[in-house]
Amino acid sequence: MAKNLLEQLRAITVVVADTGDLQAIETFKPRDATTNPSLITAAAQMPQYQAIVDDTLKGARATLGKDAAAADVVTLAFDRLAVSFGLKILQLIEGRVSTEVDARLSYDTEATIAKGRELIAQYEAAGVSKERVLIKIASTWEGIKAAEVLEKEGIHCNLTLLFGLHQAIACAEAGITLISPFVGRILDWYKKDTGRDSYAPAEDPGVLSVTEVYNYYKKFGYKTEVMGASFRNIGEITELAGCDLLTISPALLGELQSTEAELPRKLDPAKAAAASIEKINIDKATFDKLHAENRMATDKLKEGIDGFAKALEALETLLAERLSSLEA
């Protein structure tokens, strides 16, 4: 009997669910799951998850006391909500959940370190080992340096909003556990910049970028895992079959599951090890220079941080409105 694409993909790549939707995670049974501010904000507005939001708000109120200002209650609930969803997700999966540091701290190394420690402390207080959590941080130079400190403390990190090889190399040299290069967002930029409507999967700029990063890591023996993210179609996914991990939305997981076709392995560590690749040493000056020269990475990193920041502001508004309704 022919196997579907999802079954074949799972044989060579760790499949991760890119969602805050618990029902979708239960349906597709990924090993790991990732969330981000946009996904948490979307999930928090779904009626089926209202109880998680309400319980988080009530817990924050109980912690601060009945006389605490509503704004302070909302701030505490906001800090706890991603962990609340993470704890629910961990009940459904065998592996790890990624929980993101506030995107507004992306250029503040010390604040990012503090927030990473705080998130892990919340998980540990709930009885979850830090081995099951990845702290998700934007791939700015400051974010990478923060993650380097956290990794040395045994706090594992997932560096996100990654668009260029320079970011990937800096992460690997910092000893980061995992990176999430954004395939679809790279494609979006190139389509807009070139005016092209589409790219064949094998020519997709996002696919080519992740392939370059994967081959570089395997060539030089870096332990940092590569997890392709932000897909626009299943062609991008099948072209990256063999990548360490791929984090995929429920809609595309469903499409992979319903499609029967042969899935050849495209990324292979042995082939990468034999490739002719030049090693690049990255310090801050080199990182800044390469980032400035890469218009796509510059644009998409800024856009991604701004987008996540707006999602967080929307979530704060939602929590304030819900608290008002609960305490009316």
CATH superfamily: Aldolase class I
Shape: globular
Mean pLDDT: 96
Helical proportion? 55-70%
> In the CATH scheme, what's the topology name?
TIM Barrel
First and last CA, distance: 59 Å
Instruction: Give the low-confidence spans.
Output: none
Radius of gyration: 20 Å
Number of domain modules: 1
Strand order of the largest sheet: 1-2-3-4-5-6-7-8
Which architecture name does CATH use?
Alpha-Beta Barrel
Please report the total strand number as a whole number: 8
Largest sheet: 8 strands, parallel, barrel
Task: Write the H/E string, N to C.
Answer: HEHEHHHEHEHEHEHHEHEHHHH
The structure class reads alpha/beta
Strand content: 5-15%
Give the number of helices: 15
CATH top level label = Alpha Beta
Q: If you had to describe this structure to a student in words, what would you say it looks like?
A:
With 328 residues, the protein is of the alpha/beta class. It has a single domain, classed as TIM Barrel (Alpha-Beta Barrel), CATH 3.20.20.70. 56% of the residues lie in helices and 11% in strands. The protein contains 15 helices and eight strands. The chain has an eight-stranded parallel β-barrel with strand order 1-2-3-4-5-6-7-8, surrounded by eight helices. Strand 7, helix 11 and strand 8 form a beta-alpha-beta unit. Helix 4 packs across helix 5 and helix 9 packs across helix 15. The chain is globular. The chain starts with a helix and ends with a helix. The model has no long low-confidence stretch (mean pLDDT 96).
